[in-house]
Amino acid sequence: RKVEEENDKKYSRKDIPGPLQGSGQDMVSILQLVQNLMHGEEEEETSQSYRLQNVGEQGHMALLGHSLAAYISVLDRERLRKLTTRILSDTTLWLCRLFRYENGSAYYHEDDREGLLKICRLVIHTRYEDYPVEGFNVLCSKQPVIYISSAARTGLGQALCNQLGLPLSCMCRVPCNTMFGSQHQMDVALLDRVIKDDVESGKLPLLLVANAGTPGAGHTDKLGRLKELCEQHSMWLHVEGVNLATLALGYVSSSVLAATKCDSMTLTLGSWLGLPAVPAVTLYRHEDPSLSLAAGLTSSQPVEKLRALPLWLSLQYLGHDGIVERIKHASQLSQRLLENLKNLDFIKTSVEDELSSPVVVFKFFQEYSKRDQTSHAAQASTIQHPIISNERHVYDTFNQWLGEQLAQLVPASGVDVVELEDEGTCVRFSPLMTSAVLGTEIQDIDQLVDCLKMKIPVLTSTLQLREEFEQEVRRTVGLLYIEDLDWPGLGVVRYNYHSDEKNDDKQEKELEKINTELLKKLNELESDLTFSLGPEFGGQKNCVYIGMVTEDLDVSELVETIAATGREIEENSRLLENMTEVVRKGIQEAQLQLQKANEERLLEEGLLRQIPVVGSVLNWFSPFQASSKGRTFNLTAGSLESTESMYVSKAQGTGTTPPPTPTSSLAKQRLPGQKAFKRSLRSSDGFSETSSISHCDDLEKMDQRPPAPSPSHEQGPLETEKAEEQEVAQAQTDTEDVHRDKSPPDGTKVEEQASQR
To answer: Per the record's keyword annotation, is Lyase included, yes or no (predicted)?
Structure first.
C-alpha cells in the first residue's frame, strides 16, 4: 500500500489545466489574475475614463448584498428560513408601496425577460386546468395566442415562443396607430377586431404585452382601454417600460398611472437607480399560490429568496427621498434638453408629452422652401418612390453620423442612435436608463446642446453642396461619381482610368493604384476636408470618400484639383511604363554596340596582342592607343548617343541655364494661413483691384505715346523700312520711360541701362 501511495504521488495527469495542477494557488495571485482580466495589461498606459459605471456608496451596498448572500446561505436551515422570509417580504412590500401596486407579489430575476416568461406559464396553468396532466395536448385543442405590440423589443415574441415550446403562430404582432394618436401606440380598435377573429377561429386569447414607454421612442400605450379590452376577453395584461419609474414620483400622468391596474409589470431598478448587479422585479397579482409555485414565480428553496438581498440593502440606504430624487433628476434632464431643442433650427423632436416626457427623440431634418417643394413635387410625380426613399436614406445616414458624434464628444450624456419605423434613424436621450449609471448632470446637457449647435451648420452645408458636387463631377472628364447613400459626407468620386489593355485584372490593379495615390496626394494638401477609402465594410472599392464640409467650400476648385491630380498621376504612370520599355530596348542596343566595339577592338589590336604573355611584351615595346568611345542614354529620345559632344561642351564651358520649374495652373493664390478649397471673396476683390489699377497706369502711358504713322499700300520698300524703324525706336523710347519710372532715382543705373540698350 505504501508503494501504491508513492506511485500515486509521482503520477500526474497531463490533461489537467495549468492553474489546477499542484496543490493550488494563494489568494494574492488569484486576485491579481482577476485584476488583470478586469482592467487588462495596459492599465497604466490607458486612462480610466472608459470605466463609465458610476459606482457610489449605494452601488457598494448592492455589491455587498451578493457577498452577504453567500455568507447567509451557510446558516442553519431554520435561521436561514426566517431571515430570507423577512428579506423577501420587506422588499416586496417596499416596492409595491413605492410604485403604487397594492396587494402584489414579487418575482426577482436576472434576465428582464424571465419575469414575462414566468407570467406566461402562470396564465397557461390558469386558463388550461388540465395542462399539468395533459401537457401540450391541451394546447393543440385550443391554440393560445399572445399579443405583442409592433413597437416592442426586437425578438421578444420569438424568445417567448422558444422558451414556452409554442409555435410562432401563437404570437400576434399588433400594429400601431396610423391615422389618429401616436404612431408608437398600439391600435386598440384593430386589436379588438383581431381578438374577435381569433375567438371565432377557435383560438384562446391568452396574454397582452403593453408598453409604458416603448423601447424606441418612449411612448405609452392606452393602458386604460387595453385593460377594459382584456377584462372583456378574460386576458392577462402585462406592462413593461421605462416610464414605470415615474410611478414613484408625486405627480404621475394618467396614462402611466393606469399601469397600476394591470395584472403584472416588470421593473428594472438597476438602470433607474444606478445600482449594479441588482435583479429585475416582476410584480403580479394572483390568488392561487400553488399555480405560482408551478409556474416558477415562487420557490420553496430559501437560497432562491436571497436574490432580493442586494435590493433590500440598497433601498434602505437610498430611502424614499433618494429614490424619488434620482428619478426626478432624470426627468429634469430630459426637460432641459427638450427646451433647448425647441430653439434650434433643422431639429425635429418626437416626444409623447412635452411637459413630462422621460425620453427625448430628435433628428436632423432640413425643411424645403416653397420653391424646392414645387420642384421636388414635379420630380416626384415622375419617379416618386426613388426620390423619397433616397432622401430618407440620406437623412438616416446623416442622423447616424450625428448620433455617433454626439456620443463620442459627450459620453456622459448617454445618447444613442435608434431606428424607428416612421421617423427613421433618430438620436435618443433616455436619462432614466443612463443618467444614474453615467452620472449625467445639467452641464452635460448644455455641452450636448453646444456640440449639436456646432454640428448643424456642417450638416446643412454638406446636404446643400452634395448636389452641386455631383453635377461638377459628372461634368468633369475623367471622374466618375459613385452614389453611396450610406456615406455621411459630401460624396464619393472615382478617377476613371482609361486603358487599351484587355486584361481586366491589370486594369483593376492600375485603377486601385491611381486612386490610392490620388487619396494620398489629397491628404497631403492643407485643407479641412477628410479624404478616406470609405467604411471598412460595405463601401465601394477604388474610390475617394469625402467627409463633411462647411459652407465656404469651393466645390469647383475641389473637383478640378481631384481631376488634375488624377491626370498627373496617370501621366506619370504611363511615362514610367514607357520609360521602362525604352530603357529595356536601350540596354539591348547598348549590349549590341558593346559587342560590336569589342570585335572592332580585336581587329585593330591583332591576334598576337590577345595572347597573355606575348601580348604584354608586345604592348610594352609597341603600345597600342585605343580610342575609347563613351555612350549616353537619352531618356527623352530613347536612343544611345556619343559622349563626344558632352565632353566638348564641358571643355568649352558653355553651360545652359536649366528651365524654370513649371507650376500648376490650378494653384490658387491664397492669403497667408488660408487653407485649400476655401472661397475667399476678400482675396479676389483685392486681386481685381490691383490688376485694374496697374491696367489703368498702362493705359495712361499708352495714351501719352504719339501715334505711329500707318504705312499705306502706295509706299515703296524704302519707305516701309523707315516706318518700321520709327516704330521700333518709339517702342524703345516707351520702354526706357517705363524703366525710368519704375527704377529708383539713381543716375548710374539709368546710364547702365541706356548703354545696355
So the answer is: yes
Amino acid (one-letter) located at 313: L
pLDDT, tens only, 644-676: 666 666 655 544 454 443 444 444 556 665 677
**Alpha helices, DSSP H, located in 206-357:** 223-232, 254-257, 269-273, 289-295, 302-305, 309-342
> How many angstroms separate the CA atoms of 354 and 360, rounded?
9
Q: Where are the beta strands (DSSP E) in 629-674?
A: 631-634, 639-642
Closest listed residue to residue 337, CA positions, set 216, 438, 453: 453
Whole-angstrom Cα distance, residue 677 to residue 694?
28
Q: What is the pTM of this model?
A: 0.73
Q: Are 59 and 274 in contact (CB under 8 A)?
A: yes
Domain locations in the chain?
113-301, 327-367+389-459, 461-572
- What CATH code would you report for 113-301? 3.40.640.10
DSSP string, 114-143: HHHHHHHHHHHHHH-TTHHHHTHHHHHHS-
Report the length, in residues, of the chain.
Answer: 757
Do 206 and 146 form a contact (C-beta atoms < 8 A)? yes
Q: Any residues with CB less than 8 A from the CB of 272 and at least 6 apart, and which?
A: 242, 245, 326, 327, 330, 432, 433, 436
Q: In this structure, what C-alpha cell is assigned to residue 199?
A: 375567438
DSSP per residue over 204-226, as a string? EEEEEEEEBS-TTT--B--HHHH
Question: CATH: 3.40.50.1860, 3.30.43.10, 3.90.1150.170, 3.40.47.10. Which one for 461-572?
Answer: 3.90.1150.170
Instruction: Tell me the pLDDT tens digit for each residue of 97-142.
Output: 999 999 999 999 999 999 999 999 999 999 999 998 888 889 988 9
Q: Which of 304-318, 533-547, 703-717 has the least mean pLDDT?
A: 703-717
CA distance 306 to 81: 10
CA dihedral 589, 594, 598, 601 (to 10 degrees): 100
- Helix (H) and strand (E) counts for the chain? 26, 17
Q: Which amino acid is at 646?
A: M
List all residues 6 or more positions away from 383 whose beta carbon is below 8 Å from its beta carbon.
none
Fold match between domain 327-367+389-459 and domain 461-572: yes
CA 271 – CA 242 distance, rounded (Å): 10
